[in-house]
Amino acid sequence: MDISYFGNPNASNPYHHYNKNNNIAPSSSSDFINFSDYLVLDDVVFVDNNNNINNQEYYSSWSQSSETEQSSDKAASSSTTTTAADVVINQGLISDETSINNNNTTTTTTIKRKTGGIKENTVEVSPRITFRTRSQLEIMDDGYKWRKYGKKSVKNSPNPRNYYKCSGERCGVKKRVERDREDSSYVLTTYEGVHNHESPCTSYYTSPVSSNLVYSDQWTSANSSSSN
DNA sequence: CGGCTTTGACCGGCGC
DNA sequence: GCGCCGGTCAAAGCCG
Ligand SMILES: [Zn+2]
Fold it and tell me: Superkingdom, according to UniProt (predicted)?
C-alpha cells in the first residue's frame, strides 16, 4: 500500500517515491524534512523494521477507536524520555501484531469493528493514522485541501493542536496537527477517516513504456506550484 | 463575495 | 452534579 493514500504529510517531499526504491536521499529535502521514524496507527506505534529511511515498509491497520484511555496511558508511559521502541513496549498494544517485527514482507492488517451497537449496525470504521515527522514547518501540503476548524492547547504541552477537516464535498476526513510534546522538532499529524474522493493532486496517466495505466502523484512534478 | 482562520462558546464523556 | 478535558461549532474577521 502506498502511504500517500492517507495523505502523507511528507508528501511535500517530491522524492518520497524515489526514496522507497533507490538510495537517493536528496540533501536539499532531507535538510528540510526527515521521514518519520515510525508510524502511529490508531494510537498504536509501529517502529520501522530497519530504521532505514530509504527502505521503510509501512503497515496499515483499521481499528475502531472505542478506547479513549490510550492517550492517558501513553502519557504515563512516555513520562520519561522514551524512544520509539519504548513506547511500543510500554503500551503493549501490538501483542497480536508482533509478527510484523523483523519481517519486512509481512503486512499485518487488523480490522476491528464495533459490533452490537444499541443503535443500528452502523459499523463506522474510521481508521486513524498518525505520522511523526521531523519538520520545522507544520503546514505541509499533502495533496488535500484542509479547512481548519479548531485549535486547542494540549494539556502538559506548550504546543497547541490544530484541527482540520477535508474541504471535499461530503468528505469528513479529519486531521490534527501538533508538535510532539517531548521533542518539539517533531510534528504529529493524525489522519482520521477515508476520503470519498481522490486527492486533487492525484492523476492517472498512460505509461509511455508499458502503456498501462499508472498511478501517479502530481507533486513529483507539480509540487512547486501547489497552492496554499 | 466566497472560502478560509480565528477564537471563544459549547458540548458530551468521564472521574470524583 | 460539577469540573476538567478533548473535540466541535459558528460568528466575526480576514483575504483573494
Ligand atoms: Zn477528503
Answer: Eukaryota
